[in-house]
C-alpha cells in the first residue's frame, strides 16, 4: 500500500513538473525577454558633421516592478524608476568605469568624459 502511494505521489510530482515546464517555455518563447533585461533593437549613426557623431539607439526592456529602461555602463539596462523621475542621471552609472559623469545644466541628460578629454553627451527623450 505504501509503495502504491509513493508511486502515485511521484507520478503527480512528475506531471506537475511537466506542466510547469510547459507553461514556462510557452511564456518565454523566442523574442521575449527575461524580467530585468534589455536588448538593443536599432542603432543609427550619423557622421555627416565634422568631429561629431550623432548616435541614436532604441532598446527594448522587460523591467521589474519599480524599474524603468535606462543606461548602465553605456549599455541599456533596467534602473530604479526614482532615478529617472528625479533626473539624477549619473546615479544609474551610465558611463564606462574610467569615465566621469556630469549632469547637463538643464538636467536633460549627462556627459561622460574620458581620461583623454573626449566628451560624450547623452540627452534623454
Walkthrough of the structure:
The strands form 3 sheets. Strands 5-6-7 form a 3-stranded antiparallel sheet, with no helix packed on it. The chain is globular, with a radius of gyration of 23 Å. The mean pLDDT is 78. The chain contains 2 helices and 7 strands; from the N terminus they run αββββαβββ. The chain is α+β, with helices and mostly antiparallel strands and 125 residues long. The N and C termini lie far apart (68 Å). Strand 6 and strand 7 (119-123) form a beta hairpin. The protein has helices at 2-27, 81-86, and strands at 37-46, 54-62, 67-72, 75-80, 100-103, 109-113, 119-123.
Mean pLDDT comes to: 78
In helices, the fraction of residues equals: 25-40%
The number of helical elements comes to 2
Q: Any low-confidence stretches, pLDDT <50, length ≥5?
A: none
Q: Based on the structure, what is the oligomeric state of the protein chains?
A: single chain
Give the radius of gyration: 23 Å
Q: Which series of helices and strands comes N to C?
A: HEEEEHEEE
Query: Termini distance?
Result: 68 Å
* Major sheet summary line: 3 strands, antiparallel
The amount of beta strand, in percent, is: 35-45%
Summarize the helices and strands and which ones pair or pack.
Blueprint: H1 2-27, E1 37-46, E2 54-62, E3 67-72, E4 75-80, H2 81-86, E5 100-103, E6 109-113, E7 119-123
Antiparallel strand pairs: 1-2, 3-4, 5-6, 6-7
List keywords for this structure.
3-stranded antiparallel sheet, 26% helix, alpha+beta, 36% strand, 125 residues, globular, two-stranded antiparallel sheet
Amino acid at each position: 500500500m505504501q509503495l502504491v502511494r509513493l508511486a502515485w505521489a511521484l507520478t503527480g510530482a512528475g506531471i506537475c513538473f511537466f506542466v510547469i515546464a510547459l507553461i514556462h517555455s510557452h511564456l518565454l518563447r523566442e523574442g521575449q525577454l527575461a524580467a530585468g533585461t534589455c536588448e538593443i533593437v536599432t542603432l543609427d549613426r550619423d557622421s555627416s558633421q565634422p568631429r561629431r557623431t550623432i548616435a541614436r539607439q532604441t532598446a527594448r526592456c522587460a523591467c521589474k516592478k519599480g524599474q524603468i529602461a535606462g543606461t548602465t555602463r553605456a549599455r541599456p539596462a533596467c534602473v530604479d524608476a526614482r532615478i529617472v523621475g528625479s533626473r539624477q542621471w549619473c546615479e544609474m552609472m551610465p558611463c564606462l568605469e574610467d569615465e566621469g559623469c556630469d549632469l547637463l545644466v538643464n538636467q536633460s541628460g549627462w556627459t561622460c568624459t574620458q581620461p583623454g578629454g573626449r566628451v560624450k553627451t547623452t540627452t534623454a527623450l
